[in-house]
Target: Cytidine deaminase
Amino acid sequence: MTAKTELVKELVAKCLRARDLAYCPYSHFPVGAAILTTGGDIITGCNVENASFGLTVCAERTAIQRAVAEGYRHFTAIAVTCDIKDSFVGPCGACRQVLMEFGEKWDVYLTKPDGSYKKTSLEELLPLAFSPGHLDKK
Ligand SMILES: O=c1ccn([C@H]2C[C@H](O)[C@@H](CO)O2)c(=O)[nH]1
Ligand SMILES: [Zn+2]
Model:
């Protein structure tokens, strides 16, 4: 179910704040994410880079790992943001797949630094996806 506007605004505000906590000394490209659980809780994440560059974890995956570790498995929406002002930027392919693990019905709010956002969905961002259900179908 689509979240109410007030809750979306809170989600967006929290992803912007999460971006400010990004650890990105190599790329200088901060990213923030905030996940809304079906129960109305919000879990945030930022990108966490590493001197061994390939070990970097994106903001979206930081958020989902935190959420699962806190006991949440059912989600309705994620807001993501970076510092790009002139276009709405989506999660990378790896993050799309990781979100898909927890359902295809996510609303995804692509958020600009000024807090304006565009609503899309995981289905739209990852069409013809491989998902956990396929493992039962062989
Ligand atoms: O979906 C994405 C794509 C990139 N990044 C981060 C990883 C890296 O720290 C920086 C530049 O790629 O942005 C994310 O957090 N999420
Ligand atoms: Zn990513």
In short: The two ends are 31 Å apart (CA to CA).
